Amino acid sequence: MVFERMNRVVIHYHEIALKRGNRSSFVTQLADNINGILRGTGIRRVRAAPGRLIVHLKPQADWPEISRRLHWVFGIANYALAFRSRRNIDDITATALEAVDGRRCASFAIRTRRADKGFPMQSPEISTIVGRAVQDRLQTRVDLDNPELTVNIEVLPREAFVSLERLPGPGGLPVGSSGLAVSLLSGGIDSPVAAYRMMGRGCRLEFVHFHGAPYQDRTSRDKVTELTRLLTRHQLHSRLHLVAFGEVQRQIVTAVRRPFRVVLYRRMMVRIAETIAAKIGAGALVTGESLGQVASQTLANLTVVEHAATLPLLRPLIGMDKNEITAQAERIGTYEISIQPDQDCCQLFVPRHPTTRMTVDEALEAEATLDIPGMIEHALSETVQMEFEFPETSSIKSGPLLTSPVVGTATGEEL
Hints:
It is a single chain. The protein has helices spanning 2-5, 23-37, 63-70, 89-100, 123-138, 190-199, 219-232, 246-255, 261-280, 299-307, 322-332, 335-338, 360-367, 372-381; strands at 8-13, 43-49, 52-57, 76-85, 107-114, 141-142, 149-155, 160-163, 167-168, 180-184, 204-211, 237-244, 285-286, 313-314, 384-389, 393-398. It is an alpha/beta fold. The protein has two domains: 2-168, 2-Layer Sandwich (VC0802-like), CATH 3.30.2130; 180-398, HUPs (Rossmann fold), CATH 3.40.50. Strands 1, 2, 3, 4, 5, 6, 7, 8 and 9 form a nine-stranded mixed beta sheet that branches. Strand 13, helix 10 (299-307) and strand 14 form a beta-alpha-beta unit.
């Protein structure tokens, strides 16, 4: 009987509530994302209610797995497994007593929210009536400031809900609500965090990884495959473009002075990523650069790199230090993958003392002897695509660049 009534999950939005005129499109996107991520866990449907979403559960629903997955859905402020009640004070009180039955606590509080202002009783009155009944049942004190147990009551136009534990979501905007971007994913600590943060701003991402083949092994590709698989749980579908960059680097090495090589590598990465972005209809590039973190990320060098771009170049980590980035990597689960040793293409043909203050004129002069269109074409001809889904499947497709967008664009490359 308890589970038959405790068969809803009440989900509250984060920033969506502030969107007003176009809120419905954000709510629809969030509902679609929730439906997708909860596939196979035993849900009936997801429906919109005033200011929230309601997930209907089947009797065999796997609540622990549902809860685990909802924690990955951007746009969710919090969620709770809830008891459904009729919209009258007697039923709401009885449902609250059923919810707390058998619990022990040193203190409690009742929190009531009325989404339906036409309900004949105001929130404080509901809390008072239900609170007296709960206090009689639990024989414990009321603490409105720091309760050990909180009973949440929500009154909607057609029903009411009672829940005991609200779990936090990641917040932000639902993936897909802000368009498609391409993210450069290096396998280091920074770029997966940059990707995560842009997904939290509603971007769907397609990922690009530059590796040192044929001059390096595949360890960086293996790492990035695992990172993409992990990040896909936030956006359900991902595509990873694995670009063989070693030959491009070799041509730069033969024609360019040592101190300039790293910045020119980055400019070529931007051009190749933009070519991919144009084919899939992406509107921006994303990188994991942080101002001043390494020699190639000084303000002067970042300016030179950005000069090679025609699309917006988004840098969500630009003002974060390494400790902040590392802490977030640990929280989202990418850190342990990122610190695994690999052969990163950014370590290939890198001078001991790269320039920290390159100018655009110097970059253009250094590139004058390079066949840039030919280098881009060659790199793309050697590119392999992998597609990922959550729940997990993956496939490898090589040859011509796939043009139908799966998820979006990529994050940033680290040197």
